[in-house]
Amino acid sequence: MGAPAAERVALMAIHPRYADAILDGDKQVEFRKRRLASDITTVLIYATFPVQKIVGEFRIREMVVGAPDAIWEEFGDVGIIDRNSFGDYYASSENAVAIVVDAATRYERSQPLSELTPAPAIPQSFSYIARGASRRERSARG
C-alpha cells in the first residue's frame, strides 16, 4: 500500500469578466472542453490578463458532460456567454463539460502565482496544484 494521494485543487485560467461573474454569483457554470479529475472539488480562479492573479475560488457542485447542444440547452442561461461564442468554442468538439458552481468566494486580496509554493506556471486552461500551496488557503484552513 502506498501513501495516500495528496489533496489537489484545480488552478483555472478565466477571463476577468467571467471570473467576476462567477464570484458575483451571476455565472453559475464554467464551460470547458475537458473534464477535471474526479478528486477535484475546489477551483482556484486565476483571472487572466490584465489582472493576472488568483482572485477567488469556487466549490464544484457537479460536472456534466454531454453533446454541446445538450449542455447549452441545460446550462446556456446561467453560463454568461452568448450562443454564437459557445458554438465557436465547441465547433470541433463532440463533448462539452459544464462545471457547476456550488459556492464562490472572492478573496479580499488577490494573490499572484509567485506566492504559491511552489509557484506554478500560468495555466493555459487549468492545472492541478497541491491543496495548501496558497498562503491564503493554508491560513483559511489553519
Termini distance?
A: 29 Å
Structurally, the number of domains stands at 1
Anisotropy-based shape: globular
Number of helices: 4
Structural class: alpha+beta
Q: Write out the strand line-up for the largest beta sheet, numbering strands in chain order.
A: 2-5-4-3-1-6
Mind telling me which CATH architecture this is? Answer: Roll
Counting DSSP E segments of at least 2 residues, the number of strands comes to 6
Q: Specify the helix fraction band.
A: 10-25%
Main pleated-sheet profile: 6 strands, mixed
CATH superfamily: Hypothetical protein
Structural notes for this entry:
The chain is an alpha+beta fold and 142 residues long. The protein has one domain (8-136): Archaeosine Trna-guanine Transglycosylase, Chain: A, domain 4 (Roll). It contains four helices and six strands. The chain has helices spanning 16-23, 68-75, 83-89, 135-141, and strands at residues 8-14, 29-32, 42-47, 53-66, 96-111, 126-130. A six-stranded mixed sheet has the order 2-5-4-3-1-6. A hairpin with a 5-residue loop joins strand 3 (42-47) and strand 4. The longest helix is centred in the N-terminal third of the chain and has 8 residues, at 16-23.
